[in-house]
């Protein structure tokens, strides 16, 4: 039988030849497809705000939005680990607020873990959650919820000072109890240092090949989100153009009278 992936499974992959594989998903249909392909982790990312809802950033995404998507994805899963992204404003006010919303993802959404951005400033919340039985995935480097603070999507940890800050943040999250750490858009050599330094696995997105695993936004790797094409995305399909072509064929067949034909009629 296929393996049922848990936080313990992911932690055991640290330094393993078997890399951790992760993708985002936002609905049951895609979740079912990528789960059946054997993915380890399905992250219901707040990237839904951009690739599904059409916002220019992830900031407008609400807990209600995320709970809807987490519940939908849960219905499509059998084996993959479901991780819920905590949206902007759902944990920054207080530790109690963060715990309450994380519990919602676990109790109402059926998530097996939550992911949140930030290092030392979120360590207390991470500690409280893990002590309460909520597995937590950390996220450092380019943290999209801090876009207004940094003023753009530039590569992070590019100087000695910022590299040292990132390492301190990673250490604080490890000490607080994260089971894995996402590293986004940082130099590959910095990601390698962090990966070698920590006892918990790292999952890279634009962080080079030395991480313990990789994650991408599903709509990016399938060629469906065409507004931005980050350098770190490898496109495994061009579904955007294929969908346009299919819809054009559909319109043509309706206008020509060839659809529906006898085989599609009762």
* SSE run: HEHEHHEHEHEHHEHEEHH
What structural class do you assign from the helix and strand content?
A: alpha/beta
Strand content: 5-15%
Shape summary: globular
Distance between the termini: 42 Å
Summarize the main sheet: 8 strands, parallel, barrel
The strand count comes to 8
Low-confidence stretches: none
Give the proportion of residues in helices.
25-40%
* Number of spatially distinct domains: 2
What do we call the CATH topology of the largest domain? TIM Barrel
The top-level CATH class of the largest domain is: Alpha Beta
By DSSP (H or I, 4+ residues per run), the number of helices equals 11
What topology emerges from the helices and strands here?
Elements: H1 7-12, E1 20-24, H2 28-36, E2 41-44, H3 48-51, H4 63-74, E3 81-85, H5 95-107, E4 113-115, H6 123-131, E5 136-141, H7 147-150, H8 160-176, E6 180-184, H9 188-197, E7 202-205, E8 213-216, H10 218-221, H11 239-256
Parallel strand pairs: 1-2, 1-8, 2-3, 3-4, 4-5, 5-6, 6-7, 7-8
Helix pairs in contact: 5-6, 6-8
Describe the structure.
Helix 2 links the parallel strand 1 and strand 2. With 266 residues, the protein is of the alpha/beta class. It has an 8-stranded parallel beta barrel with strand order 1-2-3-4-5-6-7-8, surrounded by 6 helices. The chain has helices at residues 7-12, 28-36, 48-51, 63-74, 95-107, 123-131, 147-150, 160-176, 188-197, 218-221, 239-256; strands spanning 20-24, 41-44, 81-85, 113-115, 136-141, 180-184, 202-205, 213-216. Helix 5 crosses helix 6 (123-131) and helix 6 packs parallel to helix 8. The chain folds into 2 domains: 7-235, Phosphoenolpyruvate-binding domains (TIM Barrel, Alpha-Beta Barrel), CATH 3.20.20; 239-266.
């Amino acid at each position: 039988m296929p393996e049922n992936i848990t936080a313990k499974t992911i932690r055991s992959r640290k330094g393993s030849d078997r890399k951790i594989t992760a993708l985002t998903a936002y609905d049951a249909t895609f979740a079912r497809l990528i789960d059946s392909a054997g993915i380890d982790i399905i992250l219901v990312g707040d990237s839904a705000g951009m690739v599904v809802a059409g916002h220019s950033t992830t900031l407008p995404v609400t807990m209600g939005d995320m709970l809807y998507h987490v519940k939908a994805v849960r219905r499509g899963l059998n084996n993959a680990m479901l991780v819920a992204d905590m949206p902007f404003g759902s944990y920054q006010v207080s530790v109690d607020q963060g715990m309450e919303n994380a519990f919602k993802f676990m109790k109402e959404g059926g998530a097996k873990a939550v992911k949140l951005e930030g290092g030392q400033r979120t360590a207390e919340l991470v500690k409280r959650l893990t002590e309460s039985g909520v597995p937590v995935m950390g996220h450092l480097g380019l943290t999209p919820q801090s876009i207004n603070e940094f003023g753009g999507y530039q590569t992070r940890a590019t100087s000695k000072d910022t590299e040292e800050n990132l390492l301190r943040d990673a250490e604080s999250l490890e000490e607080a109890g994260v089971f894995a750490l996402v590293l986004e858009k940082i130099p590959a050599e910095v990601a390698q240092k962090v990966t070698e330094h920590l006892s918990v696995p790292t999952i890279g997105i634009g962080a080079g090949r030395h991480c313990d695993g990789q994650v991408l936004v599903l709509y990016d790797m399938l060629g469906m989100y065409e507004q931005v094409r980050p350098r770190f995305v490898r496109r495994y399909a061009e579904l955007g153009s294929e969908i346009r072509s299919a819809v054009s064929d559909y319109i043509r067949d309706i206008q020509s009278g060839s659809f529906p034909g006898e085989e599609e009629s009762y």
